[in-house]
Write a structure and sequence with these properties.
4-stranded antiparallel β-sheet, alpha+beta, 3 helices, Glycoprotein, Type 4 Pilin, 2 domains, Dna Ligase, domain 1, 18% strand
Length: 227
């Protein structure tokens, strides 16, 4: 039986639904890889393609290696060649070069480390957003069939804590006081101030139009969710 698959492209944007055969052909063409995140109905959360390779007829000899974090290399200071007048002169030149190397390296590290931390936080938030997008589709489908908002206990939905991952503490499915259906993602500690317990809230009105709000700073959210 063919399934409707969703996958994350190179820009971490959700694509799909596509059939089993399409996903297999995309892998053979090199458009998706074994570390591409995929999801279909019945899977508890997004997983690398390598986890479901056998289901699609893909022979995966080994999982791809993780990408190493970027490193910052300070430029090597120029070597000054001058006639040696005395041992003290060479020592002074060496000390000056060493101090310059340390100062430049420190400046680059001070710039690069916060930027890298922001990048990893945005990547973790994007993983949670993809999970929320999949649940939004389930909520809309349930509402169209039952004319009410689903809750975590309904068929096809898991208990809130069962959605937990490295990024997510829980996902709550239910309704707001104004009657709109809601999907609330509560985050774990994302290694930035105030991230633990912060939320991303999706709300769907009777016309099945979605809005979103979040207590995370905009710089950590995908562009389409920023206020």
């Amino acid at each position: 039986m063919s399934h409707a698959w969703f996958y994350s492209d190179a820009q971490r944007q959700q694509q799909g639904p596509v059939a089993d055969s399409w996903l297999l052909n995309a892998y053979q063409r090199g458009e998706v890889r074994l570390d591409t995140l995929v999801w279909r109905e019945g899977m508890p959360q997004w997983q690398p393609l390598s986890r479901v390779a056998a289901e699609l007829g893909i022979v995966a000899s080994s999982a791809p290696p993780s990408m190493p974090p970027p490193s910052v290399h300070a430029p090597r200071p120029p070597v000054v060649v001058a006639p040696a007048k005395s041992g003290n002169g060479c020592l002074i030149i060496g000390i000056v070069l060493l101090v310059g190397f340390v100062v430049v390296g420190g400046i680059l590290a001070a710039i690069a480390i916060p930027a890298y931390n922001d990048y990893t936080t945005r990547a973790r938030v994007s993983m949670a957003v993809m999970q929320g997008e999949a649940i939004k589709m389930q909520v809309a489908t349930f509402y169209a069939s039952n004319q009410r908002c689903p809750v975590n206990a309904d068929e096809g939905f898991q208990p809130a804590a069962d959605y937990a991952s490295n990024e997510i503490a829980s996902i709550n499915v239910g309704s707001l006081d104004d009657g709109r259906c809601a999907v609330q993602i509560l985050f774990n500690d994302l290694k930035v101030r105030g991230s633990a317990g912060s939320e991303l809230l999706y709300a769907m009105d009777k016309n099945m139009d979605w809005t979103s709000t979040s207590t995370l700073p905009d710089k950590y959210l995908p562009a389409g969710l920023r206020q």
